[in-house]
Amino acid sequence: MKITFYGHACLGIEVSGKHILVDPFISGNTKAAHIDINQLKADFILITHAHQDHILDVEAIAKRTHAVIVSNAEIASHYSAKGFNCHPMNHGGSWNFTFGTVKYVNAIHSSSFPDGSYGGNPGGFVIVGEHKNIYIAGDTALTMDMKLIPMRTKLDLAILPIGSNFTMDVDDAIIASDFVDCDKILGYHYDTFGYIEINHEQAIRKFFDKGKDLMLLEIGKSIEL
Ligand code: NI
Ligand code: MN
User: Fold this and answer.
1) Tell me: the pLDDT tens digits for 5-40?
2) Which of 17, 21, 130, 182 could form an SS bridge with 42, CB 3.0 to 4.6 Å?
């Protein structure tokens, strides 16, 4: 499984020959100006919630790639009505896709579309791939529901927001990594705009002091699991 960070909360995942994009917000991210959305491959686009900083490039990429949009029922029906190919889910449900199993799990946040229309309840995804399992938390507060995840799934990587203000901060993300029983963490949802700037060295040190590995990838860089 190869995971690429495209800035903010956008990820590319390659697994079992499929390309998955998560929360594409690239063309509006000045820090990701070197990423061309017209070059990105996508068989599936996973969306955690309807906020602009998670959906901005969904339509452009889905139009070109014909990717299947996977999200909560309300977001899926929003894009279905526009003619896109969608797979609706809701909290607690799983589906076996061609690349692995996806479970839509709880996130404590909100989920309106940019025009204020209802975007269902926000979530995260647990992906059980052929060899590796990951958790993409989405925008969320620290929540006890995270403790449910390791009851079913042994994670190899937890992707957690760490920017504070709109989501967990670094200290809560450390507790979250305990809750999901995973000491390998990829941080996201930080530095994109003023409210969520963090001190990288301090964040990495805080995780390190708890025996955990926080990775902060440059935009466009990948890790292999
Ligand atoms: Ni959000
Ligand atoms: Mn966000």
Assistant:
1) 999 999 999 999 999 999 999 999 999 999 999 999
2) 21
Decide if 220 is inside a domain.
no
Write out pLDDT tens, residues 135-188.
Answer: 999 999 999 999 999 999 999 999 999 999 999 999 999 999 999 999 999 999
Asked whether the beta carbons of 129 and 154 are under 8 A apart, the reply is: no
Q: How far, in Å, from the CA of 186 to the mean position of ligand 2?
A: 16
Residues around ion ligand 2, judged by CB within 5 A, are 53, 139
Q: How many domains does the chain have?
A: 1
Tokens 């977001």 found at: 75
**Is residue 132 included in any domain, yes or no?**
yes
Ligand 2: distance of its center to the CA of 46 in Å?
14
Domain interval for residue 200? 2-215
Whether 222 maps to a domain, the answer reads: no
**Is the pTM here over 0.90, yes or no?**
yes
Indicate which CATH number applies to the domain containing 72: 3.60.15.10
